[in-house]
Amino acid sequence: MARNVRIHQLQKLTWRPSFQASSFVQPSRCFSVLNRPPPKYEGHIPLTRVERLGLAIGSGLGSFLDPRRGDLIASFGEATAQPYFIYKLRDRMLLNPIGRRILRDRPRLTSTSLDIPRLRNLPPNTLGYAYAAWLDREGVSPDTRAAVQYIDDEECAYVMQRYRECHDFYHALVGLPVFREGEVALKAFEFANTGLPMTGLAVFSAFTLKKAEWRRFWDVYGPWATRNGAQSADVINIYWEEELETDIDDLRARLGIEKPPDLRAMRKAEREARKKEKEAKENMARAAV
């Protein structure tokens, strides 16, 4: 009888319930092109590692060859920002009280939210006036920034969107124009300040500049960008909407940013100098005849 009890106890320990085949939970399939997870926010496009690598290479080469392709620059920025760089930038916002407030409020920079006509009527020394004047002079609009698609984390996607929409404020703050030479200088500043790989790649497009432009970048704007980007406060943590009536010189001083020489004025002066030199040579040639 004792033997029967031990057998019964052993059966209890080793017994496993029998399941119908249909009751087994199938393991989830791996993320692939044929098994793409649902988007995490509106407009989100999840990518596999291979897709992300392909996007980074293709958009990187395309934007290097043609820096005017904003869509390629945006795609390259998103493809290379994760899994590390955009999280580091988000963490720097979380460590800053203003950055945390921006992440909580999620403001968007558009022509409507900024009320551009009102900014044009602000005193000339204010950030808002300088921003509106820069938009008018360069012929750009804050409404042209593409929506983020390839950043997986929803909060980090907003950080990238915020960086993208703040770009024109960086231009206005330092007075750099939108043509290639000015963009390269500003991207060098952004790379030193934010560490985003896309901004670093844009700096390499300096090798495609003309000889005079390269000399200015090497002698003037490159050193300015590196020094000011590294030593200034994190520009991602500026609540631009609350600084519109701030004196722009005071804001630069608070952030630790020096205004670079006027690039348009330098280019104009060099053109006039070349023109005068050419005219002088022509006059000498005519006098020698």
**Low-confidence parts lasting 5 or more residues at pLDDT below 50?**
1-28
Helix tally equals 14
* Class based on secondary structure composition and strand pairing: mainly alpha
Extended strand count: 0
Radius of gyration, rounded? 28 Å
Beta-strand proportion? under 5%
The N- to C-terminal Cα distance equals 134 Å
Q: Characterize the main sheet.
A: none
Percent helix range: 55-70%
Order of helices and strands: HHHHHHHHHHHHHH
- Dominant shape: globular
Mean pLDDT: 83
Account of the 3D structure:
This protein has helices at 2-14, 49-65, 70-81, 85-94, 97-105, 111-114, 116-120, 127-138, 154-174, 180-194, 197-204, 211-231, 248-255, 263-288. Helix 2 (49-65) runs antiparallel to helix 3 and helix 8 (127-138) crosses helix 9 (154-174). It is an all-alpha fold and 289 residues long. The protein starts with a helix and ends with a helix. Residues 1-28 have low confidence and may be disordered. Helices cover 63% and strands 0% of the residues. The protein has 14 helices and no strands.
